[in-house]
Amino acid sequence: ATKDMRLALKDLETKGVNGYVLDLRSNPGGLLMASIEIARQWLNEGTIVSTKTRDGITDVKKANGRALTNKPLVILVNEGSASASEILSGALQDNNRAVLVGQKTFGKGLVQSVRGLSDGSGMTVTIAKYLTPSGRDIHKHGIAPDVKVKMGEQEAQRLKLEDLGTRNDSQYRVAESTLVKKVRAAGSIDKAYQPGSANLPAATSAAPASSSAMP
């Protein structure tokens, strides 16, 4: 995922995009370090996440000054966004790097590892909890979006996979309009435009600078 995101960002930056919508809805997460490395691609400075063990030992991970873009960013989240996707969302929200749109996330703030047993099976062990840069413990609480947009069951059932991330998707439409406002505020464009709806690698949608203007 880290490599895919890096390649997608580098490619899109060469095409002169104005901003990004990152769709983390129903993303159950993955490896802790992967989420940290992806956050570093978006965040140039600041804390990304802190992990605290039962013994009270705290480890702080920070940005490394190697962000690939500083363009406006909107992140889509819902109740299926968990674990590593919450680390990424929380880091970028707390550092005012991104606006979160959608629904409250799942709330899985534990760091776990799998310990091998003598019979060949494995056991998942909680070794620490993580805190967002502002010190939030989101376990069982989740992360509230900056812009709440609920998707009803009927719409969720009606939407086909190919409709996600297009204007048939009500949450995406709000994310798109939020991005337009951020891009305007950044002074990147002086009129409204129509972002492309193509699904891009690493669940990233972008607003190309060459898109046509809205009526």
Question: What labels describe this entry?
Answer:
single chain, 215 residues, alpha/beta, 2-enoyl-CoA Hydratase, Chain A, domain 1, 4-stranded antiparallel β-sheet, 9 strands, globular, disordered C terminus
Give a written overview of the molecule.
The protein is built from 5 helices and 9 strands, in the order H-E-H-E-E-E-H-E-E-E-E-H-H-E. The chain is α/β, with parallel strands linked by helices. The chain has a single domain, classed as 2-enoyl-CoA Hydratase, Chain A, domain 1. The longest helix has 17 residues, at 170-186.
**What's the level 1 CATH class?**
Alpha Beta
The end-to-end span amounts to 37 Å
Strand order of the largest sheet: 8-5-4-1-9
Sketch the topology as an H/E string, one letter per element: HEHEEEHEEEEHHE
The CATH architecture would be Alpha-Beta Complex
Record field, number of beta strands = 9
Q: Quote the CATH topology.
A: 2-enoyl-CoA Hydratase, Chain A, domain 1
Q: Based on CA inertia axes, which overall geometry fits?
A: globular
| Fourth-level CATH superfamily | 2-enoyl-CoA Hydratase, Chain A, domain 1
Indicate the percent of residues in helices. 25-40%
Number of domains: 1
Strand percentage: 15-25%
Mean pLDDT: 87
Instruction: Specify the number of helices.
Output: 5
Largest sheet: 5 strands, mixed
**What is Rg?**
18 Å
Q: What class, by secondary structure content? A: alpha/beta
Topology at a glance:
Elements lengths: L1 H13 L2 E7 L8 H11 L4 E7 L4 E5 L10 E5 L6 H11 L4 E4 L7 E7 L5 E10 L15 E2 L4 H6 L11 H17 L17 E5 L7
Parallel strand pairs: 1-4, 4-5, 5-8
Antiparallel strand pairs: 1-9, 2-3, 2-7, 6-7
Helix pairs in contact: 1-2, 2-3
